[in-house]
Write a structure and sequence with these properties.
Helices cover about 80% and strands about 0% of the residues. The protein is mainly alpha-helical. It holds the Pfam family SecE.
Length: about 90
């Protein structure tokens, strides 16, 4: 495969030199802060109502069924065309 190019060497030197080193105590002490931030961001989310969730679920089922039938039909047509073309060659 050969030697890595200059960009790969430069990237590996840069990341090795600038990589932050996290001590285990910083990691442990940062967990409560992380959880607090997650709860704060989750409180800002506008959650859908039950009616919106049901309506969206019904649309997904209908569209999935429609697309399944559509692709079944397209596949059936292609299958018959290929079968016909192969019967001509035999």
């Amino acid at each position: 495969m050969g030697r890595p190019g200059p960009l790969a060497r430069r990237w590996s030197k840069r990341t090795a030199r600038n990589a932050p080193v996290a001590s285990p105590t910083n990691f442990i002490s940062g967990i409560p802060t992380f959880i607090r931030q997650v709860r704060n961001e989750a409180s800002k989310v506008t959650w859908p109502t039950w009616a919106e969730t049901v309506r969206t679920g019904i649309m997904v089922v209908i569209l999935t069924t429609f697309l399944g039938l559509f692709f079944f039909a397209v596949d059936s047509v292609f299958s018959r065309v290929v079968t016909f073309l192969l019967s001509l060659a035999a």
